[in-house]
Amino acid sequence: MAEVLSQGEIDALLSAISTGEMDADELKKEETEKKVKVYDFKRALRFSKDQIRSLSRIHENFARLLTTYFSAQLRTYVQIAVTSVDQLPYEEFIRSIPKMTILNVFEPYPLEGRLLMEVNPNIAYAMLDRLLGGKGVSINKVENLTEIETRIMSQLFQRTLDSFQEAWSSIIELDPVMEDIEVNPQFLQMVSPNETVVVISLSTTISETSGMINICLPHVVLEEILPKLSIHYWMQEKKKERIPGELEAIEMNVRKAPLLIQAELGQSELSIHEFLHLGVGDVIELGQMINEPLNVTVGGERKYLAQPGKMKNRIAIQVTDVIEEAANDE
């Protein structure tokens, strides 16, 4: 972005040119000269700005879903927000995180490869303390996790993959599966050291404890869906092609849907005393004449009129009329 000069700086430049301290021709010559920009091939920028913005939008949604999930699980104040989205070599990312931390490795089927969610130990132990009935105090003992603690954390972070799947649903239907939990980044080699990765940093606050959750997305894993991350894909409206026989299948399923149909013989009012003393042989008088049609309801709505009778020694009704008011009711 070009530097914006203040009015005082502009006046100083004009004064210097008018007094001859600066030569306008030399300034123009400097502007036309080719400027050399240093490019580090080890830090290749393989994601476009559009793709970075798309990844940022996806994980802003992921952060909101995580906030809801952790708030419900931990029953305390939780705030998660995206603070940065950067692309850098995998080796640089590994060097930037703590030597001992919580590393959740998962496979994002149907994509090939592995993704990583690094949770700062302060955050992870605050979560564990809340799950075990504490106040959310963080005690960093990541070097000697017990089997029970590992199991609890594994189940907690396994369920975060549902939120990850939902956040990515507008791009691709993922079925992420937790593969392992590691604590030492040096033992984790997902991709080559020079491979470009996108790191989404989520600022996380749980009760009075703060820390970072980092999502590491290698370029080689996202390569096949990168075209879907461009702004043109987001803005493009695609008409879904109708699958042959889809309409018929829907109609068949609708026809098989069960409906509750009831024929009402009449209504009567009884006191609690009368109801409690009903016995075999008692007669209940209904508020409907024997020659009046019965109301037939479908799904609780009056739909037909009918008359009672028998068919093959079974009680039955015969529909005599359709109640149009119910049919046209909106």
UniProtKB/TrEMBL annotation:
GO biological process: bacterial-type flagellum-dependent swarming motility; positive chemotaxis
MF term (GO), any: cytoskeletal motor activity
Subcellular location: Bacterial flagellum basal body; Cell membrane
Keywords, in A-Z order: Bacterial flagellum, Cell membrane, Cell projection, Chemotaxis, Cilium, Flagellar rotation, Flagellum, Membrane
Family assignment from sequence similarity: Belongs to the FliM family.
Gene3D superfamilies linked: CheC-like (3.40.1550.10), SpoA-like (2.30.330.10)
Flagellar motor switch protein FliN-like C-terminal domain: residues covered: 254-323
Topological relation to the membrane, as annotated: Peripheral membrane protein
CC terms in the record's Gene Ontology section: bacterial-type flagellum basal body; plasma membrane
Organism phylogeny: Bacteria, Bacillati, Bacillota, Bacilli, Bacillales
Transmembrane segments: none
SUPFAM superfamilies linked: CheC-like (SSF103039), Surface presentation of antigens (SPOA) (SSF101801)
InterPro entries associated with the record: CheC-like_sf, Flag_FliM, FliN-like_C, SpoA-like_sf
Protein name, entry field: Flagellar motor switch protein FliM
